[in-house]
Fold:
Amino acid sequence: MLPPEPNGVCPDEGDSYIVHPKICDLEMVPNLRRSNSGFCKSKRKAHFATGNNEKENLSSWIPENIKKKECVYFVESSQMSDTGQWPMSKLGRRFNLPRGWCWAFSKRVMCECGYPREQHLEEATKSSVFLGKEWDPKRHIQEMPTDAFGDISFAGLGPKVGKYVRVSADTPPCVIYQLMTQHWGLDVPNLLISVTGGAKNFNMMPRLKNIFRRGLVKVAQTTGAWIITGGSHAGVMKQVGEAVRDFSMSSSCKEGEIVTIGIATWGTVYNRGSLICPMGGFPAEYVLDEESQGNLSCLDSNHSHFILVDDGTHGRYGVEISLRTRLEKFISEQTKVKEGVAIKIPIVCVVLEGGPGTLDTIYNAITNGTPCVIVEGSGRVADVIAQVANQPVPEITISLIQKKLSILFRDTYELFTEGKIVEWTKKIQDIVRSRQLLTIFREGKDGQQDVDVAILQALLKASRNRDHFGHENWDHQLKLAVAWNRVDIARSEIFTDDHEWKPADLHPVMAAALIANKPDFVKLFLEQGVRLKEFVTWDTLIYLYENMAPSSLFHSKLQKVLVEEKERSAFSKVPGIQLHHVSQVLRELLGDSTQLLYPKPKHAERHRLSIAVPHIKLNVQGVSLRSLYKRSAGRVTFTMDPVRDLLIWAIVQSRKELAEIIWAQSQDCIAGALACSKILKELSKEEADTDSMEEMLTLAEEYEHRAIGVFTECYRKDEERAQKLLIRVSEAWGKTTCLQLALEAKNMNFVSHGGIQAFLTKVWWGKLCVDNGLWRVILCMVFFPLIYTSFVTFREKRLQPMSCLTRTRAFFTAPVVIFHLNILSYFSFLWLFAYVLMIDFQVTPSWREYVIYFWLFSLVCEETRQLFYDPDGFGLLKMASLYFSDFWNKLDVCAILIFIAGLTCRWIPATLYPGRIILSLAFIIFCLRLMHIFTVSKTLGPKIIIVKRMMKDVFFFLFLLAVWVVSFGVAKQAILIHNEDRVDWIFRGVVYHSYLTIFGQIPSYIDGVNFNLDQCSPNGTDPYKPKCPESNKDKRPVFPEWLTVILLCLYLLFTNILLLNLLIAMFNYTFQQVQEHTDQIWKFQRHDLIEEYHGRPAAPPPFILFNHLQLFVKRVLLRQPAKRHKQLKEKLEKNEEAALLSWETYLKENYLQHQQCQEKQNMEQKIRDVAQRVDVLVELLDLDRVKSTGLVEQRLTGLEEQMSQTAKTLAWIVRALRGNGFGSEEDAPTMVPSKAPELKEYGSEEKPEETTAPYHVSARNLLYPSSSTVRFPVPDEKVPWEVAFQIYDPPFYTADRKEVAACDPLRDSLESLSKINYNAMDGLINRQSFHGMYAVQNRLPLNPMGRTGLRGRGSLRFFGPNRALHPIVTRWRRNMDGSIYRKSLKKMLEVLVVKSPVSDHWALPGGSLEPGESLPLKLKRVLRREFWPQFQNLLNQGAEVYKGYVDDPRNTDNAWIETVAINLHFEDQNDVQMKQLNSFLQGRDPEPCVRWQLVDKRIPLYANHKELLQKVTALLGAYY
Structure:
């Protein structure tokens, strides 16, 4: 009887839900196979209950695009299962079966695919299509929609959820990449780290394990890398998972999560049944059970994503290798564009421990050009390669590798056959030969301390040794470093003496570093010579603003401006960003006192280039930043101040470090710092995020302090020049001044600086000396003849002599004199006004009243002048806005309007008295205006500020007071008075009496004791008395006295004691708070008063009308513009301004140096420096201990080997003696020499001497090009035919060619080969070798250079030598003036190269020769037919530089390529034949690309072509 049905089901792809018996559930653990499985064994609710659109899209997209593999034909296998006959206990524990099922289950019949019959479809067991045929995985395994994908959670291991998918082994990599980036939401990586090694658990030294984990996580975190492993919970995959786990536990930042992708074989995953769910598991619960996994493996819980590769079989490891290789290659070919940098995603292979499969992985990676990092000390394969990596390749022999394997593979050494050892030797030789791709991480050696540095150095070393045109190689390395954000790598590996960087070459990456907010790189580029004045062009600036952070407030304001322009201009779409749009936003932030920084260009002007996609790309469509700079070279439009432009761009995004670096480069640094402070303060007002707002205000304060610091340095050096900096008109900042910027930004600390206050004092005293006492000035005002004496002194020497007119003018135009004259005038006005109101206010105005009217008219004229006075050309609306923004101006206007209203009523007889009342109110306001006059006093001024602040406290306090007053008043009125309908007495009872109660005027009737009917009106008919309270017939009050008394006590308690004391406390707090900054506030507001009287006419009211009349004539009649006095705004000459800015820059450098010294002297900084030095010292001590320990370990290893050999020798002696003989010498083991020579260590700069390979190398590559044929491995020592190689058995391979008639026979049959005539002319085919006679064996010629590992002729046409011709066409590289370009005193060549559209490499214009032809076909494709004879004549005149064997990958044991290389050199740049050649190039076939290329050792040519080119440079004495 079957067990009951499972409780939880998972929907199938259809609408119905299929419920299977539980036995099916059990049978599918761990080798579940039914494609129509309709359940999940995860303990979760059915996922169809969720309504998440993302999951629904994933559930529909994945089955449509990703497949799995199913066996569709059951063929019985001789194997019972993956583990044979399982014991009952293990079987039951593995499948959670009842004991009764175990025996029957263990006797299941298995298919060739590895699954039992029960795990196949019914059609597979009854198939008639394949009946009687052998099982073939290519035919009998078919693809079906995948049934395992979604989210994966590990039971009992926390809430972490990953992603997984089951894919077919034939899935295109592009589909998986699309799944990861678009559907799983992974960011495109900056780096791909493929970690490979031992699949079983192995032991590592604890220190090396920690270094590996720390370095791997660091490189992944800092570069934004993907880590790809095998995904299982064992071996190196477990090490990676634990490293990621440790990082996740110590990091709280979600952005720092590391993407770890496990690519495993589906058929080897234990408990995979819980992952199957046709509509997706969200999440699927996976149980990690290592004890019961058997030969299978569990997934690692610390990986974030899993790709489970299915080939339709069970229990077979290595299925994922092919797909993993293709996926890694596909990802490495993708180009990532981020923040202005476009790079092909680099890939690096990291190796720990490992076995034969790991060696194959390393070999394939090196063959594909992937750099590898080998961690020495991890064991087995990694240690074998690490120990021989520093030796020359010829010294890496079969015996050496055999010895290493016997030591490092002690447990499995017996499994290594002779052929396997030869194969390992060959692969290790090829791996070590590519030293530019191989990096050995040795703990404590070669200056390496962290794995992350070794990984990045490996990538840069590989890139550095890769062939590129011109600067492309170095550019690629720099782009990698910028993308990784590793400035330390850039400093140590890129900016070295090996390459000379031109500042212009750094401009594209400079823009990328700015956009990506990488200040360390910006600082590095500036150190390398980048000049901002050359870097910042009009196009670059627009590009930077287009790539601003979308989250910044400035970006949203800029977009708002663009939308408004679209609405005004009726555009169909939002216009592109232009600098005048930026200027509009900046003017809002800087204030209207500044002019537009970027004027709007006219329609005829085009400041910007038309650019499609301005990214730093070399191989994609769109215009790169590099091409932007190249195209702009002829017409670069520099902005007025590039440093200012970059500073603004950085500061509006609150990029603190970038702005700091750029500000340090500026000349007008004080104005720049004040402008930054102003911008940040304005942005902070609109910032919604509190943290961002606080950061902006902090940064604004920091820039204010910088401005103060630089100004302090300037003021100490020269007071006069420092004060000139304050009022200098800055063209760069919108024709404003430093002082105006500080006032706009309300930088009180800056304005209150002693130097600025001294300047304001000097302005206040005008041309008078500031040390004149105020009493002297007042006496001179009263007795003006004293001006002409020495009673007062003047600053200017020329005014010291007696000169009536000039001294009078200088005295009465001084602001201090004007101020006191106006005080005298204003007091006179108030005295006369009061006299008229109180004594002389007649029906008919007296002459005194007319004087008041005339006086007020002069005040109105002065206020009008202030309103229309516009020396900066702001316009009437802006001037009105500025005028009414001042509180005292509002007060003046209010007083004038009330006075006019009272004057109007005064002239009407019926309203004479109301007019006098209104004029009395106007007098009050005019008196309040006196407080503004007192602000000039250092004693009264701060107190007035305190009073203003306290008025705000009173205003908010009244809200609290009103609550108690109204509540008590209404309750009292309702209790005492019945139906009072008089509004005035209701107001008195509720508000007025309640308010007076606070001050002790308690109503007499509230408690009934002092109740008196004479003081009230019983019916409320007396308008002058309140209505009497509720009373009885005896005229006694009946209201509850106890209640009113309690209410009164509570009211007085809260108002008199609580609220009034709260008000006092608020006043005290405000006083203390303001008192601390009162001096700064007073000094700041003092400027407004000084500026007002500095620009005010000299005469006081009412005599000021004469000045107004003069101004009217000048401005209105004569049309003369208004001018600002030079003392507050002065435009300097260019030379003077340049000298002043240079002086300011010099003192700014002093300030920055002083700041650095202060930071170093700071106690906290000293403690940090000491701690850092201690850490470095401890690290050095640890490294020294590791070195010494490693040396001891090596010596102990050598000693152990000696002892082992000694023991073997003694055993042999014993056996010989027992056999009554001493044995033969051949059997006697030889003593192994001491390993002391192997203890040699190569330093970081030492490299083993590499001699030129004596044998062909490319011809022995294991994989034959353009085929799947694998050569027999031939180590270097077995290449010569003279050396015995007993096991040498190469395969025979001959490729099919279209032109069969022009080729030798395909097979090695005697009949077909007997017709070939070797070492002679065979018809048109020349079978003679340039190297003399070659041997012929079994009718097949032997390669004169030795074995290649392959018989036949491969893809070549003929057995024996295949002739080729390589013309090397060269000319001298010329400068612009026609002279020959030189490097290292040697002339530089240019060579003609071609590139086929199907190839990634450039090549010399030559190739194989057809029988009877004199020019190669490839050369004919790039020349017109009519030029062929002439080119043949040129070849006859050329110089032969080489004739012989070519080491080509297509060579075999029986066919090889021999070439003739002829140099055609054009000495004269005006050579007629060279010009004809240029004209005939690319004349026939448009596909090949032809170019003249500068010759150096990094030119990207085939290796054998580079050897030919090197011979040409040696022949001509040119640079290489």
Q: What stands out?
A: The two ends are 85 Å apart (CA to CA). Residues 1163-1218 form the longest helix (56 residues). Residues 1-51, 82-106, 604-638, 1230-1247 have pLDDT under 50 and may be disordered.
